[in-house]
Design brief:
15 strands, 3 domains, about 20% strand, about 30% helix, alpha/beta, FAD/NAD(P)-binding domain, seven-stranded mixed β-sheet
Length: about 475
């Protein structure tokens, strides 16, 4: 690429204006270095919310109580205090609508921008990055260019779900994006709907359809047919150190089963065992080699997810009522084929227990299997260009880009790309758990420290 003239220069450019980008900006603002400038680049209709907190439905609640949802790791009551002023009767145990949490993040981001002359928000899309004279040149969708010493990719969940089968024959009845407002457009209130997947996205979509006025039958299908467990109060049992059992997935499974069995004798709750591991998840993940990680993904991921990521009691009760009333039917099996037949779609699927081929007729199919992580499939011009130039590389298990422990993106040679970082879901390959606010807020604080220290060091070296 020929040399270009950058219209503006920044020390840090954060690409992505969802929750992760907003928290990086807020943490950067807390560091007192008046000469360092940061810009957040994003094209979200309402910055700071991202997909998760942009939902318009009251039925979409946080899956974590308010007491664990502070945006700042050094101020655990920040969100609860904000919430109490806006939702009378709320406390640390309240599960609030996600749209309200989006308002909280948006207020933090707005305050950050308004109270700083060093931090800016640019409503645009970054389409390419190029390296020139030890700086990154950012190309925007409007044809403009800007430069930055350091880049943070805060892009959230980049990919839509993967297609388990070919849905070309389903026509417009099939919706790959479960968050699109199109999923309920022109859907008659009594028409049946098939939801692919039985996880948290399925629950959100089912309750969103109900809130929007749909009262027809819902079918949900997944390979295991398992539903996620529910939050329940328990006596915490923190671990002082990580047992050696966790050097392999099999050893970890044995330890968890034994600890739960031991706790059952004293009427303790299994949730305490699972949650005691949370501070060690990234450590455990990095103890395992690629073969062990692949084994976990094949054999234990689903059972881990349904116990680790739980729903609120309120959501669980609503879901149970739909199942008891036979409005929502859970199927354990796999899809075979779909075919549109005028006003509905005929879905052929195989029952996992009997092996029989069965048929469901529905008016709509919505993919609720969760975002794909395979960045080699992405159509984003920015990610495609970074892959093509070798600045980033895919994890062998297709969980996202490869990173080091501080969050630097690794290039095709396995080395850290200069001043190129990421946060949130794009760190799953390196940390495994990297999508929840408790993890992201910690990453944002650590990343702000790293950015500031490296920028100051480089300026001192350049002036010496």
């Amino acid at each position: 690429m020929p040399s270009v003239k950058a219209e503006n220069s920044y020390h840090v450019a954060v690409i992505g204006a969802g929750a992760s980008g907003a928290l990086v900006a807020a943490q950067f603002h807390k560091r007192v270095h008046s000469h360092l400038k940061l810009v957040v680049i994003g094209n979200q209709p309402r910055p700071a919310r991202g997909v998760a907190y942009e939902t318009p439905f009251q039925a979409n609640l946080l899956n974590v109580p308010a007491g664990n949802m502070s945006a700042f790791p050094d101020d655990g009551k920040h969100f609860v205090n904000w919430l109490k002023a806006r939702l009378p009767g709320s406390n640390a145990e309240t599960f609030v609508p996600r749209m309200m949490y989006g308002d909280y993040l948006a207020e933090i981001f707005e305050d950050t921008i308004n109270n700083s002359t060093r931090i800016e928000y640019l409503n645009a899309t970054a389409t390419a990055l190029n390296r020139e004279d030890d700086k990154w040149i950012i190309q925007l969708n409007n044809g403009a260019f800007m430069e930055a010493n350091s880049i943070v990719l805060a892009l959230g969940n980049l990919l839509l779900p993967a297609n388990p089968i070919n849905f070309d024959t389903a026509g417009s009845a099939y919706h790959l994006n479960p968050w699109s407002p199109e999923i309920s457009k022109d859907l008659n209130a009594d028409e049946p709907v098939l939801l692919i997947g039985t996880g948290l996205t399925m629950i959100d979509v089912a309750l969103s359809l109900r809130e929007s006025g749909h009262h027809g039958h819902l079918h949900a299908i997944s390979r295991h047919g398992r539903l996620y467990q529910t939050h329940k109060p328990y006596q915490a049992r923190p671990l002082s150190n990580l047992p050696k059992d966790f050097e392999s997935p099999l050893g970890a499974l044995r330890w968890i089963r034994q600890e739960i069995k031991n706790d059952e004798k004293s009427d303790a709750d299994w949730r305490a065992v699972i949650d005691s591991l949370r501070p060690y998840i990234s450590t455990i993940w990095n103890l395992w080699n690629q073969t062990q990680r692949a084994s976990f993904l094949r054999h234990a991921r689903n059972i881990w997810d349904i116990h680790r990521h739980r729903t609120s009691p309120e959501i669980s009760n609503q879901l149970s009522a739909l199942i008891e009333d036979k409005i929502l039917v859970i199927h354990k099996g796999s899809l075979i084929s779909v075919r549109s037949g005028g006003n509905d779609v005929t879905v052929h699927w195989q029952d996992a227990e009997t092996g029989d081929c069965k048929i469901i007729n529905v008016a709509r199919i919505i993919n609720c299997t969760g975002p794909s992580r395979d960045i080699t499939r992405i159509q984003s011009p920015l990610i495609k260009s970074l892959l093509a130039e070798g600045w980033i590389t895919s994890d062998p298990l297709k969980l996202g880009p490869q990173t080091d422990l501080p969050g630097r993106l690794l290039n095709a040679n396995g080395q850290a790309s200069p001043n190129l970082y990421t946060i949130g879901p794009l760190r799953i390959a390196g940390l495994w758990e990297s999508i929840a606010i408790p993890e992201i807020r910690k990453q944002a604080a650590e990343l702000a420290d790293l950015l500031v220290s490296e920028l100051i060091e480089s300026s001192l070296l350049s002036s010496s």
